[in-house]
Known about the structure:
Elements: H1 2-5, E1 12-15, H2 22-30, E2 35-40, H3 43-55, E3 61-65
Parallel strand pairs: 1-2, 2-3
Amino acid sequence: MLERLAPAPGDTALELVAGRHRPLRGAALVAPGGRMIVNDFSEALVDTAERRAAEFGLGDLDFRILDGEISIPPGQRSRPVRSS
């Protein structure tokens, strides 16, 4: 998704539910001089992404663990969102 937005060097980008590898691609898109804010629900995935970024020498990555909840009203069902 981030690639479709075409961030340029020097931009700031936000990657939600990033996983292990996407932050590395995103950081490469905004480097040099850019900033990448990386979020995920899993502390283990954030730790892995942070470690991999350090291995590749990628700087200015702001790693955070998401703390949120999505409420579904009683009687409602969640449905998958399908893209075309």
